[in-house]
Specification:
By secondary structure, the chain is of the alpha+beta class. It contains 19 helices and 28 strands.
Length: about 625
Amino acid sequence: MSSQDQSLEHQGEETAEHDELYKVRHSLAHVMAQAVLEMRPGSTLGFGPPIRDGFYYDFILSQPLTEEDFPDLTRRMKKIIKKGQRFDREDLSAEDALARIAEMGEPYKEEYGSELIEKNNLKGLTFYRNGPFLDMCEGPHVHTTKEIPRDAFKIRSVAGAYWRGNSDNVMMTRIYAWAFLDKETLDTYVEAYELALARDHKKLGRELGIYAIDNDIGKGLPLWLPNGTIIRDELENLAKELEFKAGYVRVATPHLAKESLYHTTGHLPYYAEDMYPAMELMEEAEGGEGEDGNGLRVKEAYRLRPMNCPHHHKVFDAEPRSYRDLPLRLAEYGQVYRFEDSGAVSGLVRVRGMCMNDAHIYCTAEQIKDEFKAIMGMYQEAYDILGLDTFHVRLSKWDPEDPKGKEKYVDNPKAWEESERILEEVLLELEIDFKVGIGEGAFYGPKIDIQFNTVTGREESVSTVQLDFAVPGRMDLTYTGSDGEEHTPYCIHRAPFSTHERMVAFLIEHYGGAFPTWLAPVQVQMLTVSEQYDGYANEIIQRLRGHMVRAELAPSNDTLPKKIRQGATRKIPNLLIIGEREVADGTVTLRRYGQRAQHTMTVEAFESALLQAVKQRLPEVPVAEEG
């Protein structure tokens, strides 16, 4: 039986199916389930697969289980491992398998097992038993529990998870655990994980006053606080500079449009589930009955836009276009709205309202490759400025075998094949290593996704560039060619900085909240030894603010050591200490974030170095080497 036929235990799998670590993790999931059933008799089972760093198991528990129960759970698991229970496999016919599951009293296993048999026309299912524990499972497992290292796993956390990932289903309790082949690897991984948690953007976003979520505003609709707005503005300024140098022109468009526009573009029905419902403007119906018998009918229906591209297409269409106008590069930081599932909304990474670093390039077929190459060059320049290098490239294609293909993708196999060939050639010619993601393409064409691994262990698409062969034709967009005939342009969609929300979340974690000077909400803070030096400090502040530097004075009623600690807590990149010597000599003493060394220099020297760091977007203010 293939893993595609029976994937109950394989969700989230990222290790080779038959390697030793996979078997250990898979077997530990069964050991944990056995221990949980000992602790919470009458509980029922969901899924229990190996995952990238360990395993988890889902339960409907007869009584809650919390972190306080982890030591008891761990002790029971180690006791089971010590017993050397054998993992015995049993293959049953479909009829006998369903009877076995019914005897087990596991309704969720019964639901899934019945579906597997019916949908895949299976003749049977596989079960594994270790000691008293029996599970519907394809394996593989270790031979006995004695092959499992007793000191190389650790219970990680308890969380809620909908049965089969569907928010319409029951909420189960998911218990996560780490598992490796030796204690040293486990300890190293756990230490790195705990360091990553300290960088979690939800934690730092709250502590550093970057954004807030308010129930009265709505889930997934972040409020950008002053510090977060500064970071947004600086990223937007960087994007505008790069785009200006690359020949982009800026536009501004509304946040909503008539529903009919999205039927024309194909966002309806392809993207319907991710859009907010229509806002309907009503009027009195002729004859008095109306659509619902209330005497009213829909005059107009509007939708909050999920993407900026339909509006940009209308900008292109606002004037006659010639081949001499192409490529036309339209850019906008545009606000869009997507109705993410409530269970998926998280911090700034998964939101319902977002501001996208968007641009659309209208070009001829002959210009596609050069435009893609220029875009990839822009992406690399942006990543170099931000200090980002832990990413890989994915060529995202359509899946012609997807049974829902016509609902998910424009049905034009020839155009898909040609577009995918062009993007693959671009990556090969640029000598960029890439992976292929089948089924990851946009509905209107293939794309190149830049995938980053975050410090908290997630893989996220931070940047994307897409080739659209379908929507310009749907919108009747044309330009006059050199032959005097009307032609349909290609459209390239690109977003190097993703959305403000996702990019800021990523950068918070990347920098651990300690942003480089050019990006930091407060760039310089003055720390005076006593209030008598505040006047000198304020003169420097006004001088720096005259150069648009974000400088402030620390509260004077605190001691200097406390001021230093508070500045470090706020992760301010540059603290300037002012005392009697500095005032007398016309100097400042610089203490940079994360560094104990201090550097005394003239105000002019600091000002020059600071402005250089801001203008060139350097990682830190440069300081001349002493001696």
